[in-house]
Design brief:
Radius of gyration: 24 Å
Shape: globular
Strand content: 15-25%
Distance between the termini: 33 Å
Helix content: 25-40%
Strand order of the largest sheet: 8-9-10-7-11-12-13
Structural class: alpha/beta
Largest sheet: 7 strands, mixed
Oligomer: single chain
């Protein structure tokens, strides 16, 4: 289930602090200066076993107040269009401002659930002051302090109450779509996502049926040619909306995240001349966190000046940026010239198989216990750590439980050693591998 919550509000009301609080990490940069968040921030929040995407719409740095308001209003429109729910943040220390009121007008007209989060309510007198925000007319109002975390639990309870359990939603899916591999084409605007889709399905559109998307903003194309069958989820330039002036970057982010949730394998498209950007790396690490298969396609390779080792050098530099997860296939393509695009699909199908791979228990234990025998976990506080057996967990992403006497004492370097051994012996190229240590 792809559930996305956008945090909207004028600058400096504490959106980034709340974002960090929901993600339980310091990802967004926080400062008292308004408009610090220029890049889109996005991540996954987990509350009581329910996960959802969180997007911080960010502030803006621009000259005049008029442009400021216009840009922020545009953000709110996009959040309403694309997110499943909106957290509208206001600040009790400043009271209701004109900008708050104009944003509230827009949000009240939407049919999306809006949670009004009154921030900086950290003492009794502020609680009394905060009651004026009832006049904005929202049903769901929460008084909280994103710095201390007080009140955020109630907000999270209300958000997760909207998320349908995946088991309940399963029956509604097209059975054919459920079994076919799903590939999402993701990447920055103008890297050639539409060109790649058109090159893949080409003139044979008559053979291709467009399945109505499970989310209304991504088009699912059923591909069945050359003995290859899969569903392509296209996030590129879908349905130009007349009413909303496109803020391309913000749209592309929300859509990429939604497509990623539905996909088995993500085709991350890069522009060869620009290389990998900070936003691409964020999308890449989010796909890894979500346990999706990944294939990196470097597009517009036909435009690059080439020497003998150009591709090799390029791939080496690219993988340095993708570290620590570097076991990812990288292909150099040209969507316009149709160079190696079908090779890209073959690799994506291989990655799909890698993600679905189940290793027989006897074989898994034989290989891994031998690797453990060759290099024991370090002794901790005089305790020798003994790993007795390994089993693969029944999850979509390849996950392995190592049963041992002191599970909490095994450190990251040894975890990495075990992951490398799994990758050496069983092909998990392009797929994140999860390792857990359990008490035997």
């Amino acid at each position: 289930m792809s559930f996305t919550v956008a945090i909207a509000g004028r600058p400096n009301v504490g959106k980034s602090t709340l974002f960090n609080r929901l993600l339980e990490q310091r990802k967004a940069i926080i400062d008292d200066v308004s408009g610090v968040t220029r890049d889109r921030q996005y991540g996954v929040a987990d509350w009581n076993g329910k996960k959802f995407n969180v997007i911080d719409t960010g502030g803006f740095v621009s000259g005049s107040d008029d442009v400021f308001e216009k840009e922020i209003r545009k953000q709110v429109h996009i959040a309403i269009e694309e997110a499943n729910a909106i957290i509208f943040m206001v600040d009790t220390t400043t009271g209701i401002t004109n900008l708050d009121e104009s944003m509230a007008d827009v949000l009240r007209k939407s049919n999306k659930p809006v949670f009004l989060a009154v921030n900086k309510v950290d003492n009794h007198s502020r609680m009394l002051e905060a009651s004026e925000f009832y006049s904005l007319g929202f049903e769901h109002i929460f008084f909280l302090s994103s710095i201390t975390g007080s009140g955020t639990g109630e907000l999270l309870d209300a958000i997760t109450a909207l998320i349908v359990d995946e088991n309940d939603a399963d029956g509604q899916k097209d059975p054919e779509e459920k079994t076919l591999p799903k590939f999402a084409i993701i990447g920055q605007p103008n890297v050639g996502k539409s060109s790649l889709l058109n090159a893949l399905i080409g003139q044979e559109r008559s053979i291709v049926s467009t399945i109505a998307g499970t989310t209304r903003d991504s088009i699912h194309t059923h591909y069945n040619l050359f003995n290859k069958e899969f569903v392509l989820i296209d996030t590129a330039g879908i349905r130009k909306k007349a009413k909303v002036h496109e803020d391309l970057e913000f749209y592309s982010v929300i859509r990429a995240i939604k497509a990623m949730d539905e996909a088995d394998v993500c085709l991350l498209l890069l522009d060869a001349e620009k290389g990998i950007t900070a936003q691409d790396l964020s999308i890449f690490s989010l796909a890894v966190k979500k346990g999706k298969g990944i294939v990196v396609l470097v597009n517009k390779w036909d435009k690059m000046e080439k020497e003998t080792n150009t591709a090799k050098e390029y791939e080496k530099k690219l993988k340095q940026k993708l570290a620590p997860f570097t076991d990812v296939p990288v292909l150099f393509i040209s969507a316009i010239e149709k160079q190696r695009i079908f090779k890209g699909i073959e690799v994506a199908l291989d990655v799909y198989d890698n993600r679905e791979r189940k290793i027989p228990g006897a074989q898994l234990n034989e290989v891994m216990l031998k690797a453990i025998e060759g290099y024991h976990p370090p002794v901790v506080r005089g305790n020798a750590i003994k790993i007795k057996y390994v089993s693969q967990l029944p999850t979509h992403t390849p996950s392995f439980a190592f049963f041992c006497n002191y599970p909490d004492d095994i450190k990251t370097p040894y975890r990495n050693y075990l992951e490398n051994k799994l990758r050496e012996n069983f092909n998990f190229s392009g797929v994140p591998v999860r390792i857990f240590f359990r008490k035997k």
